Automatic annotation (TrEMBL):
It holds the Pfam family Radical_SAM_N. This is Radical SAM domain-containing protein. It comes from Klebsiella pneumoniae. Its cofactor is [4Fe-4S] cluster. GO terms for molecular function: 4 iron, 4 sulfur cluster binding; catalytic activity; metal ion binding. Gene3D superfamilies: 3.30.750.210. Residues 354-395 are annotated as: Disordered.
Amino acid sequence: MERCAGDPRGIEASLRRTAHYDYWSDTVRRSVLVDSKADMLMFGNGERPLVEVAHRLAMGETIDQIRDVRNTAIMVKEALPGWSGVDSTRLDTPGKIDPIPHPYGEDLPCADNKPVAPKKQEAKSITVQPPRPKPWEKTYVLLPSFEKVKGDKVLYAHASRILHHETNPGCARALMQKHGERYIWINPPAIPLSTEEMDSVFALPYKRVPHPSYGDARIPAYEMIRFSINIMRGCFGGCSFCSITEHEGRIIQSRSEDSIINEIEAIRDTVPGFTGVISDLGGPTANMYMLRCKSPRAEQTCRRLSCVYPDICPHMDTNHEPTINLYRRARELKGIKKILIASGVRYGHRGRRSALYQRAGDPPRRRLSEDRPGAYRRGTAVEDDEAGNGQLRPL
C-alpha cells in the first residue's frame, strides 16, 4: 500500500502549530505537527492551501516537495533556500513579568524628582530614499525554541506576541521554531477569500445533517449550529483572550447578501425540525459584517493587533448599512418567524453600534451571557484589549 500523506488541520491544528500551552496536562507541549508525525499542517480556513496541495499532488509532486504553500507548516532541518532570517528578539524585546500589586500594600513615597530638561540637538536634514522592496518577502522570524519557551513564561509570551504580529497576509513573515534537532517552518497566512469565493464555498451541496452512522443519537454540537448561519469570517477586535486571530485572521471575509438569504431559504425548506427560528445570523463577531480597512495600502502593511483598541482606527470602515439591510431582508422572508443574534457584539464601536440597532428596527434578540466577556469587568478591560463597561450604558 502506498504511503498516505498526513495533514492535521482545523482550529485544533491552528492553535497548536507552535509550542503551545496544553490545559489538560498543564504543560507547554510541542507543535502538534511534531507529535502527530504528519507531513504537513494546515492552519486557518484551509480552502486555498487544500486546493493548491491537491492540484500539485495531482501534477506529480510529492508531499515532501510541497514546502511553500501559504497557511501550511512543515518540518525542516534548516531554513528554506533563498530565505534570510531575523531573530525574534530584534522585533520585540522580552520583558520581565511584573508581580501583581497588592491593593493595600503600597508604601512607596510620592515622587519628588524634578523633570530633566531635554538636551538640545542639532537639526538633521531629511533625505528622500528610493523605495525598497518589501522586506518581509523571503524573510523568516526565528522564534525561541520549544526547549526554551516550555520553562520560561516571558519567552513564551514573547513568542505568542510575535505570532500575533505575523498574521497579516499582506506583510507576514514566515516563522521558524526549533524542536529538538529540527525546526517547525510556518509559511505566511493565505490571502483572504473574496466575497465571490466565499459564496462559492458556501454554495457547495452540504447536507446540513449528521452522518448517517450517528443514527438517532443526539449531538449537542449539531444542535447548537443546526439553524445557525455564518455570514462572515475573521475579527479585527484583537482580544487577548480570543483565538480567532490565530485561526481566521483580522481581515473580514463576508458573504454576499444573496448567498446568506439562499442559505436561510435552504434551511427553511430542507432541514428537518425547522420551526421558523434562525438561531444565529452572525460569525466570530456579530457587528463586523462587510467592515474592512478603507486603505488598501494600510491593510497590506499594518501590524496593529486591534483595529478598535484603544480607539477605532481612522482607516476602518464602520458603515453598518450592509448589516442593517441583511437583517431587514432576512426578517421579511416567508416562513421566518424570528432571527436571533447569538454571536458576540463588539462594544468598541460606540455610537455606531447603537445606531445599528436603532436603524434596523427592533433590537436583535440575543442572550446577554454571550456578549464579549471583557466588556463587563472594568479592571480587566485593558488586559483583555476590550472596551470597558462604560460602553454598555448607552445600550
